Amino acid sequence: MIELSSLVKTYPASGQRGGRPGRRGARRDDAAAPGEPEAQEELRARQDRTAGARARRGAPQGVGEVRALDDVSISVPAGDVVGVVGPSGSGKSTLARCVNLLERPTSGRVVVDGEDLTAMGPAGLRAARRRIGMVFQHFDLLGSRTALGNVALPLELAGVDRRERERRAAELLDRVGLAEKAGARPSQLSGGQQQRVAIARALAARPSVLLCDEATSALDPASTAGVLALVRELRDELGLTVVVVTHEMDVVRSACDSAVLLERGRVVDEGRLSEVADRPGSPLASRLLPPPPPAPLREGSALLQLVVTGGTEEPVLSALVREHGLDVAVVGGRVEHLGGRRSGHLQLEVLGGAAERAPRLRAATAALRERGVLVESAP
Amino acid sequence: MSALADLLPLAPQLAEATRETLLMVAVATGLAVLGGVPLGVLLLLTAPGGLAPHRVVHRVLGLAVDLGRSLPFIILLVAVAPVTRAVVGTTIGSAAAIVPLTIGAVPFLARLVETSLREVAPGKVQAALSMGARRRDVVRAVLLPEAMPSVVASCTVTVVALVGYSAMAGAVGGGGLGDFAIRYGYQQFRTDITLVTVALLLVVVQLLQQLGDAVARRLSHR
Q1: pLDDT, tens digit, for every residue of B68-87?
Q2: Contacts of residue B130 in chain A, CB cutoff 8 Å?
Q3: Is the N or C terminus of chain A more exposed, i.e. has fewer CB atoms within 10 Å?
Q4: Closest CB to B221 among A20, A143, A211
């Protein structure tokens, strides 16, 4: 269970900070935000429309500072896999790093499993961090240690004796499918194998939370799928609460139960994946279920775009044909599996729908809506 | 060759000078590592954005280190004479030369070590912190082991520099190969002796460099 409330993280606009390699460009993106009132307005308007988004607190923006996180409140139930998505510079990595206080928020509270990390002293925080595993984009394994030595490191830091930590590390390497690589150096392993070692390392101290900061961004598609499947399995086995920071929507689609969309440090949209399809046009839906590009139509035809969801078992096409006397052709479509449901779009060309059959199309559209079939656009 | 025959009587002195050089360099290197590595760690930790940022400490240490490095060794040699006398009891001889050699090498090595440690990917430090590591854990388990090949290379550079410095120490009565070259070669206009000494220094430096490279290679797992 992770509860982040009213997190604000600001940096001085100039001057160097350590510890966040390669993020300078991203920060500049953030810096651009205050200078663009229209974008801000647009964001705020969108936020008001969004079901889960919290009201903005109206904290004054200091001069010459960059806001990486701007009043972010998120609650992740225990055992959930939440995806944090957004364009680069939107603050999603900062958000993940605030969960274990690798970055201390300027204000706001971080509560993990009922413990307020923001109120802890150094020793308490170190103990709390052992209960929060983290994996990184570039794996960050120690080249001076073997795979086994890397997995044993968190146990070494926790003061576990040598025999016990080697036993546990071997067990974890076995769990991630790399038992035979125990003596290998990180440089002898592939990217996917290194990330598996990093996951084993993150889980060595038996945490209840796993943070994945762009954990698959440096991996090829096959390794990505393997790592994501492993994360899901481990969640199921260990009841982990998982935060997956990513810029890849595919990662969210295949691994997450819910998603939070950040833009310019603010929560723009959030929701369970199984419900995203029910809100066509919402920021998350348009990213997770992008409508197919409009297909070219014949003269006088109209485009009918249906939202396909797992709950829709209506015989839609035959109803259009039989009950409304329309001729339709399938011109496009895309179906994804989201949160255990089939969700997507179906594009139909309604012949004459923009001409003599327009009244019939209107009637048909109204009838479909009445039956609970979501119609995204019917020009 | 008559030149070689002329050199033979000096062989015992040459051997003695080589022994003195090696002794001075070995002891000074040991002391420089003991002082320079912790100082390099401290420079890195106290730097802005480091694990224990401290502006004043960082500035003071940085200034002291840069002063030590910018001072020509021959000046340093004379300047620290009172310290040498206080520590060793005399300013003459190989034992006395070890003091200025160490004082000269510590800041030199400290900067090199700082640079070596800086090369460790910040993500590895972050990863350790995310596991609940203390600062000293990060230094012990991450920074030093990860930078070890580079730190060894830094030590090698320092050893070689110390061989050069030790020759200068000879000029003020430190003994060693430098002293030998000046007294028997330069002052007696015996170019052959100077050349032999230089060749010997070259061999010593080569051996030390190869030893350092071999150790660094063994430690590197890239």
Answers
A1: 889 888 888 888 889 989 98
A2: 100, 102, 129, 132-134, 211
A3: C
A4: A143
- CA atoms of B57 and B51, how far apart (whole Å): 13
Inform me whether the C-beta atom of residue B222 falls under 8 Å from chain A C-beta atoms.
yes
Nearest to A140 among B49, B126, B221 (CB): B126
Instruction: Name the DSSP class of B182.
Output: I
Would you say A196 and A230 are in contact if contact means Cβ atoms under 8 Å apart?
Answer: yes
Nearest chain A residue to B133 by CA distance is A157
Task: Tell me the CATH number at B120.
Answer: 1.10.3720.10
Question: pLDDT tens across B41-54, in order?
Answer: 999 999 998 999 99
Rounded CA separation B99/B76 (Å): 10
Helix crossing, B144-171 with B191-219: angle to 10°? 170
Domain of residue B57: give its range. 2-220
Domain-wise residue ranges, chain A: 2-276, 289-377
DSSP 8-state code for residue A52: S
pTM, two decimal places: 0.84
Domain count, chain B: 1
Contact A19 B122 (CB under 8 A): yes
Task: Pick A289-377's CATH classification: 3.30.70.260, 3.40.50.2000, 3.20.20.70, 3.40.50.720.
Answer: 3.30.70.260
CATH of domain A2-276: 3.40.50.300
A/B interface, count of CB pairs below 8 Å? 82
Q: Does ipTM surpass 0.90 in this model?
A: no
Contact A126 B133 (CB under 8 A): yes
pLDDT tens digits along A290-299? 888 888 888 8
> How many alpha carbons lie under 13 Å from residue B149 in its C-beta half-sphere?
14
Given a cut of 80, whether residue A311 has pLDDT beyond it is no
Vertex B25: Cα angle to B114 and B92 (nearest 5):
120
Structure confidence at residue B134 (pLDDT): 96
Alpha helices in chain B (DSSP H): 2-7, 11-46, 55-70, 73-79, 81-88, 94-118, 122-130, 135-137, 144-171, 176-180, 191-219
CB contact under 8 A, A132 and B126: no
What pLDDT, in 10s, does the model give residues A256-300?
999 999 999 999 999 999 888 888 889 999 899 888 888 888 888
